[in-house]
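Q: I'm building a small set of examples for a reading group on sequence design. Run inverse folding on the following structure and report the sequence directly after it, with nothing in between.
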């Protein structure tokens, strides 16, 4: 039985985790960021990849996977390191990346929709 319910607008949510303070964090693919639910809006941005210029409703990199370490987002995956809507679609088989959230370092990998562990 659900204890709490969040209503959002369109955001294409992917992986979900729980932060140290008890808040939910999720991958917001449509807006290219990690986000938390908001009481006033569909979401509150928490982090975006350094190559994404702004939070906008355009799937620019297909951010989709998240690995947590000690209740903190540690790594995220994306289909492409791109900042233009839908460019990732042409790069999904050879353009995948893993980004370290803390350092913003990117590692090239063949990543489509990868589940992660903190030991990458």
């Amino acid at each position: 039985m659900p204890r709490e319910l969040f209503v959002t607008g369109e955001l294409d949510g992917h992986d979900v985790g729980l932060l140290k303070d008890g808040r939910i964090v999720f991958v917001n693919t449509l807006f290219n960021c990690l986000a938390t639910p908001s009481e006033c809006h569909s979401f509150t941005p928490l982090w975006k990849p350094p190559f994404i210029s702004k939070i906008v409703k355009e799937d620019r990199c297909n951010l989709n996977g998240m690995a947590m370490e000690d209740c903190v987002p540690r790594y995220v995956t994306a289909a492409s390191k791109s900042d233009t809507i839908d460019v990732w679609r042409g790069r999904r088989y050879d353009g995948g990346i893993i980004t370290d959230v803390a350092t913003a370092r990117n590692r090239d990998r063949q990543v489509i929709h990868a589940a992660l562990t903190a030991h990458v």
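Strands lie at 13-18, 24-28, 33-36, 44-47, 63-69, 72-78, 97-100, 106-108.
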